[in-house]
Amino acid sequence: MLSVEGLSAWYGQAQALRDVSVQVGEGEIVTLVGRNGAGKTTLLRCVMGLHTHATGSVTFLGEDIGRLGPHRRAARGLGYVPDDRGIYATLSVEENLLLPPRVGPEPWSLERVYDTFPVLKERRRFPGSKLSGGEQQMLALARVLRMGARLLVCDEPTEGLSPLIVERIGEILREVKAAGITVLLIEQNVHFAATVADRHYLLAEGRVVESLDNDQVRRREHELLEYLGI
Fold first, then answer.
1. Residues 96-113: what's their mean pLDDT?
2. CA 22, CA 44: separation in Å to the nearest integer?
3. pLDDT band at residue 222, thresholds of 50, 70 and 90?
4. Does the structure show a pLDDT above 90 at 224?
5. In this structure, are residues 34 and 42 in contact, taking their beta carbons and an 8 Å threshold?
6. CA dihedral over 9, 70, 189, 96, signed as positive or negative
7. For 87-98, what is each residue's pLDDT tens digit?
8. C-alpha distances out from residue 81 to 6, 41, 188, Å
9. Confidence (pLDDT) at 230
10. 151 in Cβ contact with 1 (< 8 Å)
């Protein structure tokens, strides 16, 4: 579904990505793992067209989208959930869901969103500022699904959340995958990553240094935690 080939990116004179290649098959959940500063968020921003000082190619569903702006990538089914979640604090949950346009090929109805995220239905009149961190994360995911995303691009969806909410986020990601939606995410929690993802790319200093399956992650969990400084 998504192919990134030979991607390099810069911030001014500083090179953030160095010849990165990543493949995500349709229906997969794939994680990017690495220390802070490894280039993970820059990679996601390049995929979404939010960072343009880059070379290499990004192909989505067989189409080279490297010259498309973020809105045109969204219209093709790429949905971005940033690490700050991007919730409109003064709008209600329902207004947050209804405000963005339904641009992708397979947008979810509000009823389907509420069936998948019942807590959002309960909180639908609450302003975004009154939601917990976990509820805000669910709202950010739900909003992108309602827009019609076929590929979710998520930046650390479990960061700062309680173990119970992390478990629920994992359940939602598995439900999303079962619904035929593909996921590419940054995830520092390697134990969590191994419970939801099919494959993992380890980044260091702007490069992909390893591609790991779940068995390798489980066998090397202690080593990876030490490497990540967790």
1. 89
2. 11
3. confident
4. no
5. no
6. positive
7. 999 999 999 999
8. 24, 11, 16
9. 58
10. yes
What tens digit of pLDDT does each residue of 150-161 get? 999 999 999 889
Average pLDDT in the chain = 93
194-197 contacts at long range (C-beta below 8 A, 24 or more positions apart): 194/218, 194/221, 195/170, 196/29, 196/170, 197/28, 197/29, 197/30, 197/31
C-alpha of 118 from chain center: 21
Domain ranges for the chain, please list them: 2-228
Query: Residue 82 has what DSSP assignment?
Result: -
Per the document, the length of the chain is 230
Give the Å distances, CA to CA, from 122 to 110, 139, 140. Answer: 13, 12, 16
Query: CATH fold of 2-228, please?
Result: Rossmann fold (3.40.50)
Residue 37: CB partners within 8 Å, gap ≥ 6? none
Tokens of 177: 């995958």
For residue 118, the 8-state DSSP code is: H
